[in-house]
Specification:
The chain is mostly helical. It is built from 7 helices and no strands. Helices cover 61% and strands 0% of the residues. The termini are far apart.
Length: 161
């Protein structure tokens, strides 16, 4: 299946993506560990079935030194021993924040307490914004059927200029 619409060649979409990328840069420069950012983005993308974002975040994480073992176990992080308690809290927040329609309570008090235990206010702000941003990115890509497989790490670096 080909993409329904080429968002990369449309003027309005290009303007939007430039601003989206600049917003994402705020998160990349935040004190939230980059590895946590990639794991959270990967997990939300898996839940949303976004092949483009799964491709991007798997490759970006690997290029930044993330192990294949941890990347392969993100989908089963609760049944794995390779994630820290802080990463588990972030992954739980990502799941609950992504599955809003599936869970009437949204993010549980227990998950929020774990996030508060492991992250400071700036990291929490970045984490909440990241979950929101990756869900928006997933929706953009899924709506137009942007397929995974062609992403190369760093290919959007110019968008941050």
């Amino acid at each position: 299946m080909d993409a329904r619409f080429n968002m990369f060649e449309n003027e309005i979409a290009a303007k939007f993506f430039k601003r989206f990328a600049n917003t994402a840069m705020v998160l990349h420069q935040s004190p939230l560990p980059r590895s946590t950012q990639e794991l959270v983005s990967l997990r939300a993308s898996q839940i949303n079935g976004c092949g483009w974002c799964i491709d991007m975040h798997t490759k970006d994480a690997a290029a930044a030194g993330e192990s294949a073992l941890r990347l392969n176990l993100v989908a089963a992080w609760r049944e794995s021993t390779v994630f820290t308690e802080a990463e588990q809290a972030a992954l739980a927040l990502a799941e609950e924040g992504t599955r809003l329609a599936d869970a009437h309570h949204g993010v549980s008090d227990g998950t929020w307490a774990e996030v508060r235990k492991h992250y400071d206010d700036d990291q929490i702000a970045a984490l909440v914004c990241l979950v929101s941003m990756i869900n928006a990115a997933n929706r953009l890509a899924v709506i137009v059927h942007q397929r995974g497989g062609s992403y190369e790490p760093g290919m959007f670096a110019a968008a941050f200029d």
